[in-house]
Amino acid sequence: MVQVIPTHIKDVWDEWNIRGIVILSLTIQTILIILAPLRKRTSNRFLALILWLSYLLADWSANFVIGLIAKNQGKDLEPDDPPQDKKLLALWAPFLLLHLGGPDTITAYSLEDNAIWHRHFLGLALQAVSGAYVVIQSLPNSLWVIILLLFISGTFKYLERTIALYLASSDKFRGSMLENPDSDSNETRRPRKEDDLMPTENYTQYGTQKRPLRLENPGNLTHLEILQFAFWFFNNFKSLVVNNIFSSEQRDESREFFKNLEDEEALRILEVELGFIYEGLYTKVSVLHTWIGALTRTIALGCLLSAFGIFHYRTKKRHEFHGADIVITYTLFLVGIALDLVSLLMILPSDWTFAFISRINEDEVDSGSWIDPALKWFLGLKKLHWKKQKCCGGVEHEVLNTPFLIQRWAGSMKMFNFITYSVKADIKRIHDVKGRKRRLVWKTILYPFIFITKIFKKLFKRIANWNDDLHQYIKDVIGQWSEENPLAHYVFIIVEFWFMIPHCFTFLGNYITNLLGINDLVDEISMIRSVHSEPLTKELWGFIFDQLKSRLKRRPRHERRKTKAGRKGWDSGNIELYMADPERLMRYIADVDFDRSLMLWHIATELCYQEEAPTMTNCDKDREFSKVLSDYMMYLLIMQPKLMSEVAGIGKIRFRDTLAEAEKFYKRWHIENLRDVQRASSKILSVGIEIHPRDVKGNQSKSVLFEARALAKQLNKIKKQSVDGDEENMWSVVSKVWMELLFHAACNCDAAARMEQLSRGGELLIFVWLALAHLGLGGQLSSSANEEN
């Protein structure tokens, strides 16, 4: 009989399968506990892949080993079987229960994991039964006390994870709001026992009173006050996570507070609040900061340390067990204890811990807790760091440059530009925080590989051209020969079959991608090269927050001549254009689908931006804001379909049709290989179209390239025009349109995808959404509150 697997390989597997996968499980736990906290700081795809694989393999490896141990415990050893220490293997089973409990830094990889907490609870029961079966099979066992202690520790760790998943589920979030009827006041309501399980209820107890929202000195909030206010808002507005509404009283309280904040203070409060939301959804922090969590962790760690002490001092290991098994057991003990201590060290200096142990001042006489100075100093290390950076013709800006290990989010914005992608041009950054020298070094290192790739591409293209020319030549020869010889027809069929082989491979590749439904994935991979990051600037955030606060103010109608977008379009009527003839731009806003309007304004913004090089004299802030927001919103539309699913419409179809029209246009003008954005923009603007493209093509065509060109022409007509100071310049108009597009997307982004982004470095869009909610400008109000608004 033929052996598929060689005997020596099978023998090695039989001897080391349990040992190897036990070490693998421990290694995975180490990877998760160290790397999981980094995912809220970066959207690095390689890190996400490692964490995804580790998260999936963690449960699989632990379950698989428990099954192998149970199988080995239930059979008698044959003379030729490898040596198995059944008593020691029974000791490893509860270790795997510890591993199934998972590290404190990650309980869920995605929100869907929280929704299946029932499955984890069932898994706890099944694994407990499996562990008990393994122990019973090993009896009599001199290690039963150690096994019992480890079994208790593993059960509590698994229970922590299950409770954390339950508390982070959307049903629990919604249920916590239903538990508080409107008739109960905060003063008379008594906390229930189950409230202690989740420290994110609709109120927070500090002593006996709820923290009053007072802002005595805007602009002078300490780092500790920032943390405390963020924690207060997190507790009282956590229902926003599941798109629940809140009352007009809550809105007025939050609005009054946020409208008096300075720009940077608002940003700091929002980032800390979103950090609390991330920890509540994806980690065990919400459990460990309750009395139940503290009790279970104390018992689990105490049992683990006690088991190690008994094993080390009271067990005769050398005479009873195999040497390799003893080494593995010590490794499991020592690394397990070290990982628990590392988790403890990660939790103690966290924002959540500081918010719990700091006492909020109730009046001006109270000086606060004795530990407050130390907390303020430590939190000062995690403050926002800004770096001055020259850009846009030499103008200096302050960009967010917080060190990576103390970041609460990525602090950057992803950019995608349509024209840059369509002409395959190199990316030009507005703010290069990492430094041009560093990028030059990387380009120097990678240049040989890029050069070789280009040579192969040109070679394959030339071979393809030669193949087509040869094909045509042979067809002509066979055509002349067929007049004299009837066998030429069969030769022609063979030749055609030979030359159709490359096309068959192309057809087969397209068929497979269509069959698997991965066309979008292939397109996304090809577009990644045109995506880059820009750091958030203090000026841009100030502009966004000022625009948000300005929407709270009602301007008298007689002050300005203005036109609002119609109610039938994506816009809610908030755009106000102070121009002599605003109607010529409103046709691109009112009664236009959101995705169509976004692409129109994106291409038009880029065409106008490329018309002149930035200098110290023409470097308008509105011009830079428009460019950054335009590329950022385009990135969201194309590269974040889940986040923009509520407003994206047929954005990807429009993108493909517009891209096809652009590539056709470049070939017509022979500029497809120039890789020059400015040249391509000038060519598009140079096309003369007397009739508006929308009037000709209607809504049947999905391409918006030349409609965007018409919009750019309209924008150029109002460039730098002013009548008695009553008109806005072009870039002021464009920046306001982009702000409205940003606000609309923030108000209507998908709730689940919004929370998923917190585990991928965060997005500026989420900050805007939360700021809108706190200012009472979003759609999170009750009907009565909306009527008052």
TrEMBL record:
Keyword presence, Transmembrane: yes
Domain of life of the native organism: Eukaryota
Basic and acidic residues compositional bias, start-end: 186-196
Transmembrane segments: 16-35, 47-69, 89-109, 294-314, 326-348
Keywords: Membrane, Transmembrane, Transmembrane helix
InterPro entries, per the entry: DUF4220, DUF594
Domain (DUF4220) ranges: 52-421
Disordered: region residues: 177-201
Nuclease as UniProt keyword: no
Protein name: Uncharacterized protein LOC104771774
